[in-house]
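Appendix B.2, paired examples.
Example (i):
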Amino acid sequence: MVQGVIPAMDLTEDGGDIWGSNPELSFLIRGIHRCGAAILNHHWAITAAHCPEGAGSVFRNEGGTIHRVISVISHEMYDSFTYNNDISILKVKNSFIYSQTVAPISVCVSNRELPDGASLTITGWGHTQYHGNYSNQLQATLLRKGPTNECNITYAGRITDKMICVYQISADIPQGTCQGDSGGPLTYAGILVGVVSFAKGCAYKNYPTVYTKVSAFHHWIETKLGEFGLGLINEIDNDCRCCKLSGGPTACLKGFGYISYLKITYLELSLDLRDT
């Protein structure tokens, strides 16, 4: 994530403490960070479909807990040229153990569009400048949802209703995603609404970041999870601010403070969870 970002521990959403329930994962390939992801339930994580492509061998970093990925399901209609349907879910062999700092992220399932200008949060360990270095600390920044029609003009007709375009709040301060932020979560009041898909460069002026709209794939996710007898843990209601917990009361979860690492190898896919 590029200039203008602040460490995630210093950022709050709607005045809330972000160091809380929502985890974030990180792909590493050959020991180097590649993408972001987020936990859906005890056995599944969500990321962008272009992230698992071309995975190579890795070396385990010191510390952490390895979670081997036994299944990768990318959308059947994913287009690597247009990035349409850029979504994937990953199944781990050993379940994520929930705690005060490890929990599934709340997922937006509403068909209601977020209003233009809505304040959204992005997080990641990506490059801090174009062709720069990855961040050793989870970074976060606040951006705003922009008009789809303008975004579609900018990207020459590539934008579909399954995408969300996010703009910098100030054109004078570069803020946004960069290499290594792909697949990471875009949240609205702590609720997952998108995963990083593509952009031109790193926070280029007048070029928004494009996200896969998670709600557009709600039924696809539920269908795939249902094949394994599972479902989403936290689904939000129509206002995209409160999450309905399956089998429990309505609650609102805020925060994305748990940091963990996702590793991919040729022989196996693995998740390295590390509380840092």
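Example (ii):
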Amino acid sequence: MKNLKKVLFLFIGISAFTVAKSQAQVVVVVRPERPREVVVERPVAPSPRHVWVAEEWTPAGGRYVYHGGYWALPPHPHAVWRAGHWRDHRGGYVWIPGHWA
């Protein structure tokens, strides 16, 4: 019974790690461009603590969807926003999302 519990625990641990590491990436051959009707105008910051988060792209059904910039509060006082970017990937491109560092 103890061995069965150990094996089951090991299996669950490996499965959880595999699921966590297997995030699907959408690879596109042509890098999408910002929609032409979108004019990027940075409004006045709501407070001195707010940081501008530039455009982001999210995968949706085998393509990427554009999301305009916005003001955000850092999660802690010394957090820095690292902007998202496009990366070459196997004959195409993937979006690397922005994040707080």
